[in-house]
Amino acid sequence: ALHEGHVVSAQELTVLLQPVFTQNSRNLILFLHDTLSIGDFTYLSEFYGNKNPFQNQVNKLFINLLQEILQSSPSSLVLPAVDCKATKYLLSFLLESGYWKLTNVTNLDVSQLEVNTSEPHLLVVQLQPLLSQLTEFVKLYMFLFVEKIIGRLTMDLQEREIHFSVIYTAVRPSRISRRTDVVGELRRQLMATEEDDSLSYPPLNVTTGNDTCILFYASNFSLKANSSVLIDLTNATFVMQNVDISSSECSDINTTLSLKYTKPVNGISSLEIRFLMTNKFYGGSARNWSTLDSVEIVQDEEKFAKFNVSVISAPAEYSFHCQLVGTSNLYPARLIPSNNEARNWDVFISKLQIQGFNIENNQFSYASDCTGFFTPGIWMGLVTSIILLWILAYGIHMIMQLTTNSRFDDPKGAALSVPQTE
């Protein structure tokens, strides 16, 4: 995760842009300013003390346009700070990373723009910079002009049912904010927004008749094939719900959550992920426990990968929750490859919550978390305390074993002799 104030380097940017080259969309639009900063979006807002209704309306129109584009897209990413060296050579990097047909869009009338859907296109739109020495009226006009270009081009491609991705950035920053009070306020707003986003969509539910038998939720659900092809299934599963769950099975003993995706990325025509859960009675605890026994991945109905699961279990009346689940050794709940095909997959699930039995009112029950009571920090404290107590006890024992001599040698008298028997 990118923390507040982090500046994305060129290497990090190339990693973050990899999904652009692996998704179904074969067209990319690059809106490129000469200078731009994230502060330009709030420069004309009321937050900076601007009380001009016309200025506020212009800024609101532009922000709403960007928000509509972000919300309507299956996935989006906002990077507040990117290294200038990374954005300066962004166009060159894009041209080297794919076989794009480069098109420079200079005419505002994009209705005559020809886009051949059989080959990938890179549309570059050079936007005018928002220079600091310009008057506020000119800046307002430029905001309207930029909003008009972005709106026309994106709406025209959508009306023609052409799938595309958009990158909106600049070559270098236009301003550096030195207002610490603004930074603090933005931090609180960003944290609040992140909290709201985590609850922005409901869990996926599988029903039998009128009853819900499976609930599944994750804030991030991603796979990586052959350590190169990233497959982000979060939006397809929870937001757009472009997933087939008809093969899921529910019973009082065994439950299978089946997620089928059609063409999740280029090169994969179908992908099915199965979560196999069981409900068993254990005499030691005198209660039923639900356990996620295995996770299976079927690619193109041919390649079968199976993972054994560790630590994912809960009382049958509860749901299970874990912050990180995946194939990494660092995760508290691991997916362990069970066959050779499974070694070609990396799985990452964050904030997983799943329940396959005893669901009431279409809601998760109390969650049993994967984090145990004895965390590494607690174990370190206990071991250190035991060692110190052992040293203290050993010292007290040695002191108690000390004895004084029962006889003393008189230097003026005869020499003291001690028999060997004593």
UniProtKB/TrEMBL annotation:
GO CC term, one of those recorded: proton-transporting V-type ATPase complex
InterPro entries noted in UniProt: Ac45_acc_su (IPR008388), VAS1/VOA1_TM (IPR046756), VAS1_LD (IPR046755)
Keywords annotated in UniProt: Membrane, Transmembrane, Transmembrane helix
GO MF annotations in UniProt: ATPase activator activity
GO biological process, one term: regulation of cellular pH
A Pfam family the protein falls into: Ac45-VOA1_TM
Signal peptide: none
Domain of life: Eukaryota
Compartments it resides in: Membrane
Membrane-topology annotation of the record: Single-pass membrane protein
Positions of the V-type proton ATPase subunit S1 luminal domain: 211-357
Gene3D superfamilies on file: 2.40.160.110
Coiled-coil residue windows: none
Domain V-type proton ATPase subunit S1/VOA1 transmembrane, chain residue ranges per copy: 372-410
Major site of localization recorded for this protein: membrane
Transmembrane segments: 378-397
Family according to the record: Belongs to the vacuolar ATPase subunit S1 family.
Protein name: VAS1 ATPase
Lineage, opening ranks: Eukaryota, Metazoa, Chordata, Craniata, Vertebrata
